[in-house]
Specification:
single chain; mainly alpha; Clc chloride channel; 3 domains; 18 helices; 67% helix
Length: 446
């Protein structure tokens, strides 16, 4: 008599299968991330020895644009967006040429002073390697998509040293308000393995324990909520500025490398007017704000401009590190204005701006614990969720798909990408005033 295969047996086999495959992804991505970070560090140090290294920016953006246009158009811009697009539109298929091209163009951009991040390239490189492995193993489309998501998680975890937040980021960033639970175990495994491999290879990470967190009071809690609203508005400013510069770049009918020359020249002029503080990753400024140092009140706005020009005029790199810079400097400013510890609000700002700009409040809340310690967690979580809601239905990753609407007062756009649904967000037949008054009447009626 034949015995039927039990549900538990199938799930057990699935667990072992994804443990092996996700571990492989984590190891491969950990190695590639380490290679990228070592190359970036070496080139940045060498060029940084020269006072006017940023004068190479026009050449760097033009060269990055040229390489991308003719060898791998999919490697354009900030990498995480392209991986999200590959998952949703191409069943996780990413051309193998994207991996080396993204590494080279990002190193060129950042080493010469372009304002961008390092996580996007690692996510795209990780996703590209995962796609290659999926093809070699003859995985079907559904499993290949899962592999690419593991690559995103491993890339984020290994570049920032945050395995749990990295794993959650990889599955949360795909949808606005939704998480793919079926990929939860593989992403955790890939994230942990990627982090462990990078650490073993000597990659050092930034952690800053926030020891001073004000005691809970109603007033402080209200200030945290208010800061979350303002961080959401700052995220909105970043997204809209990025879209503005993207439209501006598209309207200039030039050969892309010439646009790179133009963008690099503008960045040189801005640097001479402001300072080199807004070039590159800006890690020194981030660490200074977390130590309580004051920065220029306009630092967050300047970084937005530098980053948007870099990424829309030929540069290659990610968005998360600039988001950290913008959030930390804006948080420091808010802390001083609200009469609270600027360092605490700089830390909250880093993660809250990520929650709003990338629509990843859960990953951002966990990131706060991994980077700053458990003391700040409750306040960071409140600010992250508030920022996520306040940013609205916008994102620095326009290929994200809506899993929910952030308010029932908007027309249902679930299942659509941010870029397709953006123009259709209208209140249902009511002005904001009428909507608020009708809600008040319902409350008192009940």
């Amino acid at each position: 008599m034949k015995k039927s295969i039990t549900e538990e047996s199938i799930l057990l086999v699935s667990i072992f299968k994804w443990f092996i495959v996700a571990s492989l992804i984590g190891v491969v991505v950990g190695f590639s991330t380490s290679l990228f970070l070592v190359s970036l560090k070496w080139s940045t140090i060498r060029l940084g020895e020269h006072s006017y290294y940023f004068f190479l920016l026009p050449l760097a953006l033009a060269l990055s644009s040229y390489i991308t246009k003719y060898l791998a158009p999919e490697a354009e811009g900030h990498g995480t967006e392209k991986v999200i697009e590959a998952v949703h539109r191409h069943d996780g298929y990413i051309k193998p040429i994207v991996v080396p091209i993204k590494l080279i163009t990002t190193v060129i951009t950042l080493a010469c002073g372009g304002s961008a991040g390092k996580e996007g390239p690692c996510a795209q490189i990780g996703g590209g390697l995962a796609s290659i492995i999926g093809n070699l193993l003859h995985f079907d489309k559904a499993d290949r998509r899962k592999l690419v998501i593991c690559g995103i998680s491993a890339g984020f975890a290994s570049v920032f040293g945050t395995p749990i937040a990295g794993a959650i980021f990889g599955i949360e960033v795909l949808f606005v308000g939704g998480i793919m639970y079926e990929v939860l175990l593989p992403t955790f495994i890939a994230g942990v393995m990627g982090y462990q491999v990078s650490s073993a290879l000597g990659v050092s990470y930034f952690y800053h324990q926030i020891d001073f967190v004000p005691a809970f009071t109603e007033l402080f809690f209200i200030k945290v909520l208010l800061s979350g609203i303002l961080f959401g508005l700052c995220s909105l400013l970043l997204v809209e500025t990025l879209n503005l510069f993207q439209r501006l770049s598209e309207k200039i009918p030039w050969w892309p490398p010439l646009k790179g020359l133009l963008g690099g020249t503008v960045l040189i002029l801005l640097t001479l007017f402001f300072s080199t503080e807004y070039l590159g990753l800006g890690l020194d400024t981030i660490e200074a704000t977390l130590a309580g140092a004051r920065v220029a009140w306009y630092a967050f706005a300047a970084k937005i401009i530098f980053t948007c020009i870099t990424l829309t005029f030929g540069g290659s790199g990610g968005m998360v590190t600039p988001v950290f810079f913008i959030g930390a400097t804006f948080g420091s400013l808010l802390g001083a204005m609200l009469g609270v510890d600027p360092a605490t609000f700089a830390a909250i700002g880093m993660v809250a701006l990520l929650a709003g700009a990338a629509n990843t409040p859960i990953a951002a809340s966990i990131l706060a614990v991994e980077l700053f310690g458990a003391q700040i967690a409750p306040y960071a979580a409140v600010a992250c969720v508030t920022s996520f809601l306040m940013t609205g239905h916008r994102s620095v990753y326009p290929s994200q798909i809506f899993a929910i609407m952030k308010s029932s007062s908007f027309r249902d756009q679930t299942g659509k990408e941010v870029t397709d649904a953006q123009a259709e967000f209208l209140l249902r037949r009511k002005s904001l005033t009428r909507y608020f008054l009708s809600w008040v009447r319902k409350v008192f009626r009940n």
